[in-house]
Amino acid sequence: MSIDNRIAELGLTLPQPAAPIASYVAAVEVNGLxxxxxxxxxxxxxxxxxxxxxDRDIAFGQKAAEKCALxxxxxxKAALGSLDRVERIVKLGAFVVxxxxxxxxxxxANGASDLMVAIFGDKGRHARSAVGVPxxxxxxxxxxDAIVAVRRD
Length: 153
Fold this sequence. Notes:
This protein has a single domain, classed as CATH 3.30.1330.40. Helices cover 30% and strands 28% of the residues. The protein is built from 3 helices and 7 strands, in the order H-E-E-E-E-H-E-H-E-E. The longest helix has 23 residues, at 58-80. The model has no long low-confidence stretch (mean pLDDT 97).
């Protein structure tokens, strides 16, 4: 089954890949690895904002992380032409805006990780970091970046 078919089977629709908001590119492919810049949690045209442990809970954070992951997949497709070129999701980096007392950043990041496994199966299993930060661009609650192994064409 193609990855596009798997996405449809999951009832998901890829968003339009977000354009960079500063002096960088969305993705760079080098030596069989696609490095994708951090993606924000867009829900339509709205960015999911807030601070985990203050005005947002874990479920909200997981939803935001999932939205970031969906945008990462959209960026993969834009950069590669076909998601079937993805050999493995190598690593995700999750940044979670949170209070000093909040320590469930890994649980929030599961929203992104679980989506990668749902879409790519075992090829979606990856290494990961999940860190708490005081603020992210545009007030986003979560940002996730990725390194992806790709088949060379």
